[in-house]
Amino acid sequence: MSTPFTIAIDGPAAAGKGTISKAVAAHYGFAHLDTGLLYRAVGAKLLLGMDAMIAAQTLTADDLQAGDLRSPEVAQAASKVAVIREVRAALLDFQRSFARRAGGAVLDGRDIGTVICPQAEAKLFVTASADVRAARRFTELTATGAQISRAQVLADVKERDARDRARAEAPLIAARDAVEIDTSQLTIEAAIAAAIAAIDTRRP
Ligand code: C5P
Questions:
Q1: Of these four, 56, 101, 112, 162, which has the most CB atoms within 10 Å of its CB?
Q2: From 39, 84, 87, 125, mutation site for ligand 1 pocket: most ligand atoms within 8 A of C-beta
């Protein structure tokens, strides 16, 4: 398909958005953008002492390859810089033009269906209970050798969600026309199948 087709996938931390987005992008042959990585890259620069707004305005592709963007510290810093209006504004154009690229795009994040691409052809809101999300994130983090307790991961996930939902700028909320998929009881395969079934109803 050479015309733009945007798939917006939003939801709270560790609900399965990343896995579903990659699989959906591969299924349709679309490009994929993990927008959380943009905020993580800005958060990582804040931890290094840079002003968040300047970091967002000068972000490069190389910054997205920086080591340790997946760490819990960077995740918390990302959600702190994500409340800043100027940071979000600096990242807007890149996300919007990615979304409308020829050949189709999948973007996952918190505000794709509500703010970045309200006209997205297909919107999903992927959720799971906080306990399930924390358990998944704990498994991911410990697999990379991180020293962190399950209780700390749950507290981090809850703190980040609360900040993402409560902020004034582009809060985490399902778009009115998003299809909600609760992955708490689903296998990865079933969650991907549910996402593709929902998107297929929006395809020409
Ligand atoms: O998705 P991920 O967990 O990598 O996102 C890290 C943080 O970046 C989120 O907790 C959120 O504060 C912020 N974010 C955002 N808007 C997006 C994507 C991520 O505010 N579209």
A1: 112
A2: 39
